Amino acid sequence: MNILSLEQELKGNAYPGRGIILGRTPDGTKAVAAYFIMGRSGNSRNRVFVEEGEGIRTQAFDPAKLEDPSLIIYAPVRVLGSETIVTNGDQTDTVYDGRKEGMTFEEALRSREFEPDAPNYTPRISGILRVKEGKYSYALSILKTVMGNPEDCGRYTFSFENPIPGQGRFIHTYMQDGNPLPSFEGEPKPVQVVDDIDELTQLIWSSLNEENKVSLFVRYIEIATGKYETRIINKNQ
113-138 burial, b for 16+ CB within 10 Å, e for fewer? Predict the structure, then answer.
């Protein structure tokens, strides 16, 4: 499998939905995490990312226009010790609580499935990064219908024990725009990442569809020390 251009993957898809990119910088020194959200409805577009503790939360940009908060207001990023959890829904809390109780990433997600938003049945995508004592690994998960059938939930986890410098993995909720929206297929895509956090932030943001993009979070974590820096961009200012 060839390493793909993240810029081309994003520019060539008007609606990947929500996306997670995890990886390692080319110089090998930093873990990379990025999460973006998009929206087609006014309710989905009426959001911003705000910092909360070491993580972030979505909130309504204009509270008066908030309709149904159930699937759009959540904490996409939370930190538990040496682990950073990134997801596209309130399963962030499920993974956080499960890990506190000693469950594995996969075990914690056993209690969840795809979102109940028929006819799309949006997949739940989740990631976890572990940076401890100079070592780094990560995993990505997707919970989705089996061939569009909501009677069956497919559960797929992809683990990367020694991430390759310069490479990230990209998973998103939808293959493309549509009605209903077709769920992501296959393993997370190998994509190029860069050493500079601002360069990656601008690359992602400028490549997302202008009409549909809503918010972006990017974090680089020093593997040797665990120190991190974060960038957040909101279309609504």
Answer: bbbeeeebbbbbbbbbbbbeeeebeb
Backbone φ, ψ for residue 85 (5° rounding): -105, 130
Q: Which helix (H) or strand (E) holds 192?
A: strand 189-192
DSSP assignment, residue 69? -
Which tokens belong to 11?
């520019």
Give 51's strand partners.
56
Task: State residue 104's pLDDT score.
Answer: 98
pTM of the model: 0.97
Q: Which pLDDT tens digit goes with each residue over 51-92? A: 999 999 999 999 999 998 988 999 999 999 999 999 999 999
Q: Which domains are delineated in the chain?
A: 6-234 (3.60.20.20)
